[in-house]
Specification:
- The relative contact order is 0.07.
- A hairpin with a 3-residue loop joins strand 11 and strand 12.
- The chain is of the alpha+beta class.
- 21% of the residues lie in helices and 39% in strands.
- It folds into 4 domains: 316 residues, YVTN repeat-like/Quinoprotein amine dehydrogenase (Methylamine Dehydrogenase, Chain H); 108 residues, Immunoglobulin-like, CATH 2.60.40; 106 residues, TATA-Binding Protein, CATH 3.30.310.200; 113 residues, no CATH class.
- The strands form 12 sheets. It has a 6-stranded antiparallel β-sheet with strand order 42-44-45-46-43-47, covered by helices on one side. Strands 35-38-33-40-41 form a 5-stranded antiparallel β-sheet, with no helix packed on it.
- The termini are far apart.
- Keywords: Coiled coil.
Length: 722
């Protein structure tokens, strides 16, 4: 670590979303800047910090939730005009709070993200991109994917206006005059776009849902260039980023805000791939970061990272030393008379607020207990920030739940077989209840998490198995009166461990196929595929035929989906995948009363291929389990002291040295070997099922025994007896 920053808390506003914070430019380079911030209550406020006090310049009345906040100005002038997007409208304010623009975009969707460049306005809903110039429509684009962010800039060489939209379907699209000129495929879903300006050059960076930061070559339309930051240590999603010279050496740093609450500062060199990126500062905010900006806020001449969290907490990470009043000899702080006066004033304000709160609670309690006709019992609106994302490396899902207030407990229910795994950051106490037979289906999981005091964010790790669709329900109960709960539902697809890839060309891979023919439309078959697989776009491609590629995160098998009106072809090297697809598609077609014809072509080479694909992982994990058992035995003998270790063989010494690796691996991959066993057993059952052969219990037991004493030749002979 090379950078030392001190945290200073400023204020708390309402619940915030992405792109809710901007710093207004100052007249001089090292002067303090004003802060513009917006929240989901529709309040825009501009304030500055003077002598540790907040000076409010203006504040709007509550209204519709503000989705995005941007600052801009005409060419050659300061970017001190404030623009907010709420609903379908865009409003413009001066830095003094005067409303100078109210523009109705006429969009059919609610505005989710916005970018302003001079007199150019770019608005995006969920699927619609619109470009306006001087509030006149220039063009629009309908995107099949969900749009998550938009930026625009003038090309360095050609000076042509170019805009980029980041889409959930692992795609970043380049547009000119509202027409797509290039589609850039990326490895994982992008979450944020950022322009890195340095030495008269512009470099486009993007953050992903799995915590990476990449570079795009937009000037030459070459697409993805390289990864700037990998996610080896932190796979939490990138929620915001900024570029600023925090070290004062003339080189811009990259500052990231993550969903898990981390704020990170990196040394980067976007022009030289050989110059390694490294972290110089990290701070945990304990709740997800929605926006951050760098500038001079609290004190003139001191650079600062201003941060806004999901619950609306605003704080700064400043280069100014904040412990100047600390007396090392006495171990206490020595305050000036002005500071003491401020502390006493704050104490009196807190006491006054506590008194008002107590009176309001008594008033509410009286109104609820009254026997008259005007009884009152109001449940406050509960805003929950949630996400369910697949971790490819461990083939498990991370469920993140966050509330603006402290969470009391969370009830997790699922109608299919899923497992809850331990998470290192999770301090909640979990208890399991006996599943019950519900009227709408079997509840296979019923668990309660009791959170510690002041916990407003929790992360759960969920292990699913492929085979059937499920609904995971989370009842989040915050610490509020009257007692209430918010229900969140998450769909778990039948092929939940698959993730989308852009293309796959491997001529050496054997494929089996599943063909459907019937009277279904393109929209219907697209919807059916979406019931089976995650990450399927809400809308099908605007062409006669759609092709989607998927890969399994557990055993790396591939699925190719090709469909159009009345026809659908599915190819995979894993027969289990095709068997699950067949069952789900048959159920969906039966619901719609659509007649379909199904034909399956089984390639026996797929059995050998899949087993060979699983074999390296299986042998690796068998060895790791053996090493873990030996390590546990050495621990039981208490052979850890230096005197005893020197008598051990090199093998056992190496085992003790690998303690952190072994423990970390089994924390990340619990029951991984049994999942591989299940994959092979299911392959055998589904192979025989598609062949119309009944599977006996004796045969299954023989395969289980063969897996315990693994031999490829013996296993293949059981799958395909002569």
């Amino acid at each position: 670590m090379e950078l030392q920053l001190s945290r200073v808390d400023y204020t708390v506003i309402g619940v915030t979303t992405k792109n809710c914070l901007k710093l207004l430019p100052s007249n001089n380079l090292k002067e303090q800047q004003k802060v513009a911030v917006a929240d989901s209550e529709g309040i825009l406020q501009v304030f500055s910090i003077k002598k540790d006090d907040i000076q409010l310049h203006f504040k709007t009345l509550p209204g519709p939730a503000i989705a995005s906040l941007q600052t801009a100005g005409t060419a050659g002038t300061a970017h001190d005009k404030i623009f907010i997007a709420c609903g379908n409208e865009v409003k413009g304010y001066t830095k003094k709070g005067k409303l100078f623009l109210v523009f109705d975009s006429g969009m059919t969707e609610t505005i989710n993200t916005m970018f302003v460049l001079g007199n150019e306005l770019f608005l995006c809903g969920k699927h619609v991109y619109s470009h306006f110039r001087d509030c006149k429509d220039v063009g629009s684009y309908l995107c099949g994917d969900t749009i998550v962010d938009v930026i625009a800039f003038y090309m360095t060489k050609t000076k042509r206006l170019t805009s980029l939209i980041a889409c959930e379907g692992r795609m970043i699209r380049v547009l000119e005059h509202a027409r797509v000129t290039c589609s850039m495929e990326v490895e994982n879903s992008p979450t944020i776009l950022q322009i890195f300006e340095d030495d008269d050059s512009k470099t486009v960076l993007f953050g992903t849902i799995d915590g990476k930061v990449g570079i795009l070559d937009v000037e030459n339309l070459q697409g993805f260039q390289r990864w700037l930051i990998s996610n080896e240590k932190n796979s939490s999603a990138i929620s915001c980023m900024d570029t600023y010279d925090m070290t004062g050496n003339g080189t811009k740093n990259l500052i990231l805000g993550r969903q898990d609450g981390n704020i990170e500062v990196y040394y980067v060199n976007v022009h030289d791939a050989m110059d390694a990126t490294y972290i110089i500062f990290v701070e945990s905010g304990n709740e997800s970061i929605t926006s951050l900006k760098c500038g001079i806020v609290s004190a003139a001449g001191y650079d600062e990272i201003l941060v806004v969290t999901y619950s609306g907490r605003i704080f700064g990470l400043t280069t100014q030393v904040t412990d100047v009043n600390f007396d090392g000899s006495t171990g206490s702080y020595v305050f000036s008379s002005d500071t003491s006066t401020k502390i006493n004033k704050l104490k009196s304000e807190i006491e006054e607020l506590m008194s008002k709160l107590s009176k309001e609670r008594e008033k509410y309690q009286t109104s609820t207990e009254s026997t008259g006709l005007m009884e009152l019992s109001a449940i406050p609106p509960i805003s929950i920030n949630s996400s369910l994302a697949l971790d490819r490396k461990s083939a498990t899902y991370f469920l993140t739940l966050e509330a603006p207030t402290a969470i009391d407990n969370i009830l997790i229910q699922c109608n299919s077989k899923v497992e809850l795994l331990d998470v290192e950051k999770n301090t909640a106490v979990v208890s399991y209840s006996q599943p019950y037979n519900a009227t709408k289906g079997n509840a296979q999981l019923l668990a309660t998490y009791r959170c510690q005091v002041n916990t407003n964010r929790i992360e759960l790790k969920i292990q699913t198995s492929e085979g059937e669709k499920a609904v995971l329900q989370a009842y989040v109960s915050p610490v509020l009166q009257p007692k209430c709960s918010r229900l969140l539902q998450f769909d778990i697809k039948a092929l939940s461990l698959h993730y989308r890839i852009h293309e796959y060309d491997d001529n050496n891979r054997p494929y089996s196929s599943l063909k459907l023919r019937g009277t279904f439309s393109l929209a219907e078959i697209h919807n059916w595929v979406g019931q089976c697989l995650p990450e399927v776009p809400e809308k099908h491609l605007f062409s006669d035929e759609t092709i989607l590629y998927f890969q399994c995160s557990l055993i790396d098998t591939v699925l190719i989906c090709t469909y159009k009106k009345g026809e659908a072809d599915f190819q995979s090297d894993n027969l289990t995948t095709l068997c699950i697809l067949k069952e789900v598609l048959t159920v969906e077609a039966t619901k719609k009363k659509t007649k379909i014809d199904i034909a399956i072509n089984i390639n026996d080479q797929c059995l050998d291929h899949v087993i060979k694909k699983i074999e390296p992982k299986l042998l690796e994990h068998k060895k790791l389990i053996k090493d873990k058992n030996l390590f546990d035995a050495l621990n039981e003998l208490e052979i850890s002291e230096e005197e005893n270790v020197k008598y051990l063989s090199p093998k056992y010494k190496n085992l003790l040295e690998r303690k952190n690796t072994l423990v970390g691996h089994f924390n990340s991959f619990p029951d991984y070997l049994s999942r591989l066993y299940d994959a092979i057993l299911n392959l055998y059952k589904d192979y025989n099922k598609l062949k119309g052969i009944q599977v006996t219990r004796t045969k299954v037991m023989e395969i289980e025994e063969c897996l315990q004493n693994y031999s490829y030749a013996s296993l293949i002979s059981l799958f395909k007896p002569c």
